[in-house]
Design the sequence.
């Protein structure tokens, strides 16, 4: 089998949301030979909507720990509230024989640090694991897909993102295939850093708007911080040709390579409606532009033959 | 009234809606504050062009171990639920990116040699955009945990009748931190398969937190059976529809407020503001003030309209 060091992991990012990461990823998946696919946008995962996945494996994800106060034992001393750094203790729990109100943990605020449980003088607080979501391995027409669903409202998206990537790497090791394609989350915070660390290269998809330009700079800065080389592609470039040129110039200054431009094209949404990658639609200008983009990336990727 | 503008999917138009709603309310002389809580990718300033009056760094506490005094008892390691501290032969080390700043290690250290020191996380900017107050949080690039910057931005906002929080996309921690404690969640939806899938998730989050919510459809089509059905089934009202018009996308790409650039949109936003105040506090002062401002506006416009009519006939 292969050694994992020769695996090429391409992570599609954007900074700003809604620039077309998933549409581009799905099309690259359709163009690639034997890709392993990973959807790291675990709180709004959409890749499955266009790849028609056939579920093979489903697992629970234990997100982290959460505190619970036993209302029968709580003496309302308030020590937990004093110590909690996350405003996760509320004074609105049911009463008991000692007190008319007890303290209660606010689940979305609790980070599971355990401080309250350790220092409760009556041992009324316990810490237990919470189900943080699910992760899946599916078959698609293009290759195996690792995807996940974070329980809405829960934290730990970084941990689940890392798990999805680890599973994709395991599949690479098992099958000997060398190309992992990752659909990343928006932003530059925790789940993006979890998708980015140790990846081979990023493809940043942006759009010619002030927001697109602003957020792309932040992503490229982050990639620079982790010393990961970046390709840049401007989607809907014809919406504002001037801003597109500015973005490409700025991206080059920041050390990124311009890899392609995709025109504004309604068939991108049409492809979504049909549940297919846009490159499969005939005579789609966006689809043709993505084929061009792929041809630019191709020489750098392992095991990929020209199309 | 505190209203969070959220979405689930990114790029559906949160900032478009938030900035235009702010400008629309300020244009009606309402007291309004805008808070950019999308601290990973803050964009409100690109459209509101605020003048910034103060800039403060936000920090969080990260432990530092006095290596000379450390007894290597590992009490700190045992107390940390995030594996952020390790006791090695060379010393006791803190992995800042894993640290949640909970303070457990400092509390646990029997020798008292752990001090928590503030580390920079981001910047909070406060200022004015015309008559509106403006606050934005920006996470430093390379910093992982963004919730404390969101919290700091929310805490920095001056009191206003209308406080609009521009939320980050998604449904995880930073989005939760933004919508926590607000009076209403306004969800900006896009009538595409991706948009509807993520709208459903965002509605679930709002409901699980017992928050009232409503929808603005952006890039609205005439036929949107699925969108309407989803909102109907979830019992969430559609408060406004912004038409799918390339002019809106172009105005945005030029950094202009869409209500200034596209005819008819100001009326849509005034209608949205009215629906919002009715949804939240129909009998409240804020709703009353808005209604009289809008009525006065139509009154002052009437003579002009009449003149225009006269001159055209």
Sequence:
């Amino acid at each position: 089998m292969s050694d994992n060091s020769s695996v090429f992991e391409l992570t599609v990012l954007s900074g700003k949301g809604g620039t077309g990461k998933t549409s581009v990823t799905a099309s690259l998946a359709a163009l690639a030979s034997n890709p392993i696919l990973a959807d790291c946008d675990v709180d709004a995962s959409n890749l499955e909507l266009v790849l028609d996945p056939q579920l093979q494996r489903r697992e629970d994800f234990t997100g982290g720990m959460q505190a619970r106060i036993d209302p029968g034992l709580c003496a309302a001393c308030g020590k937990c509230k004093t110590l909690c750094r996350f405003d996760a203790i509320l004074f609105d729990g049911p009463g008991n024989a000692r007190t008319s109100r007890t303290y209660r943990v606010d689940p979305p605020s609790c980070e599971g640090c355990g401080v309250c449980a350790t220092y409760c003088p009556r041992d009324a607080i316990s810490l237990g694991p919470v189900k943080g979501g699910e992760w899946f391995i599916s078959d698609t027409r293009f290759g195996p897909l690792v995807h996940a669903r974070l329980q809405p409202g829960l934290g730990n998206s970084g941990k689940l993102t890392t798990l999805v990537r680890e599973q994709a790497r395991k599949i690479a090791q098992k099958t000997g295939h060398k190309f992992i394609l990752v659909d990343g989350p928006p932003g530059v915070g925790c789940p993006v850093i979890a998708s980015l660390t140790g990846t081979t290269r990023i493809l940043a998809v942006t759009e010619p708007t002030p927001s697109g330009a602003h957020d792309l700079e932040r992503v490229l800065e982050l990639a620079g911080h982790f010393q990961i080389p970046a390709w840049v592609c401007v989607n809907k470039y014809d919406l504002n040709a001037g801003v597109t040129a500015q973005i490409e110039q700025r991206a080059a200054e920041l050390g990124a390579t311009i890899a392609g431009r995709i025109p504004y094209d309604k068939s991108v949404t049409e492809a979504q409606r049909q549940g297919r990658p846009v490159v499969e639609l005939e005579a789609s200008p966006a689809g043709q532009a993505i084929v061009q983009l792929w041809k630019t990336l191709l020489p750098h990727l392992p095991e990929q033959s020209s199309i | 009234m505190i209203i969070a503008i959220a979405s689930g999917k990114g790029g559906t138009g949160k900032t478009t809606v938030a900035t235009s709603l702010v400008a629309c309310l300020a244009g009606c002389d309402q007291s309004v504050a805008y808070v950019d809580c999308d601290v990973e990718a803050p964009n409100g300033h690109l459209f509101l062009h605020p003048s910034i009056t103060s800039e403060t760094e936000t920090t969080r506490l990260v432990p530092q171990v006095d290596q000379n005094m450390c007894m290597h008892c590992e009490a700190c390691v045992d107390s940390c639920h995030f594996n952020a501290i390790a006791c090695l032969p060379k010393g006791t080390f803190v992995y800042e990116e894993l640290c949640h700043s909970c303070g457990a290690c400092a509390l646990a250290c029997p020798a008292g040699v752990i001090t928590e020191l503030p580390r920079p996380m981001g910047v909070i900017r406060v200022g004015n955009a015309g008559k509106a107050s403006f606050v934005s949080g920006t996470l430093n690039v390379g910093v992982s945990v963004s919730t404390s910057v969101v919290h700091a931005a929310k805490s920095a906002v001056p009191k206003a009748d209308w406080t609009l929080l521009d939320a980050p996309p998604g449904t995880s921690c930073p989005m939760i931190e933004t919508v926590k404690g607000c009076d209403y969640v306004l969800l900006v939806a896009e009538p595409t398969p991706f948009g509807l899938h993520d709208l459903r998730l965002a509605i679930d989050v709002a409901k699980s937190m017992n928050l009232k919510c409503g929808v603005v459809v952006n890039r609205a089509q005439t036929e949107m059976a699925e969108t309407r059905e989803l909102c109907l089934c979830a019992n969430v009202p559609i408060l406004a529809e912004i038409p799918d018009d390339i002019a809106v996308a172009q105005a945005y790409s030029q950094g202009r407020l869409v209500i200034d650039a596209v005819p008819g949109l100001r009326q849509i936003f005034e209608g949205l503001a009215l629906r919002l105040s009715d949804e939240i506090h129909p009998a409240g002062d804020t709703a009353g003030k808005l209604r009289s401002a809008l009525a006065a506006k139509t009154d002052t416009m009437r003579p002009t309209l009449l003149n225009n009519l006269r001159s055209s006939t």
